[in-house]
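Lab notebook page, bench 4
Experiment: in silico fold of construct C2
Operator: M.H.
Input chain length: 276 residues
Purpose: comparison with the prior construct
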Amino acid sequence: MKTQSEEPAFHFISGLPRSGSTLLAALLKQNPRFHAGMTSPVGGIFLALLEAMSDRLETSLFLDNDARQRVLRGLVTNYFATSNARVIFDTNRLWCSKLPALHQLFPQAKLIACVRDTNWIIDSFERLVRRNPLQPSGIFNFTAGGTVYSRATGLASSDGLVGFAYDALREAFYGEQAQSMLLVQYDTLANNPKKALAAVYDFIGEPWFEHDFENIVFDEGDACDERLGTPGLHTVGRKVRAAPRATILPQDLFQRFAGDSFWNQPGNNPRGARII
């Protein structure tokens, strides 16, 4: 068993969906010192353990916060115990909502939050739906009905895939641990990946590794995407490139989400979160 001094450094990738987290992980894993990937089961188990150790159960009488901390920390460290990486990134949308807990469990950990304009996130999901018109998506509970308007409303609701992540991001951004998070904007990552990665390396205090932005290999998500009925959800192109395009959303719907990028509003960063 590894001692705490032998453990790797743990960091967490979170933020908004369709905002570059899979691309970021694909690039980071080029570094042989790093482990990174798409969403892991750790976040879901983390929530289940929190609930299982709550006062809802009689057995919580035998638990104190020290025990809870050992169990939750052990979940993360033991899940990655077989990895030889010295720096581990775990990805999950919910980590933004658990930044105080992560800070307590791993005081040196950093949170990398990928962000993007909400209207383009909705546009990206709609493109996936239209790319697979004969295959209902698990994103929408495999229902075959609905319209672009109902799909957008469902995604943006507080318990929707986009709405939850957006609210969690705001919680972390305005919270006491905001200085331990770095927001990586999709446009920066797509247009200047070296600049984005340099900011990540500087933020986590790791020496620079020369990445290959012309030859990205990442195929971990294919089976998961097929099972979800949404082929292409985690597809990463061979090269990093920005592809200018017009939205496929109706203009009134596209404009509904315009201006949601609170992190870009002047004077709206009270806790000093880093943004690249």
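Observations: The chain has one domain: 4-275. The longest strand covers residues 9-15.
Next step: discuss at group meeting.
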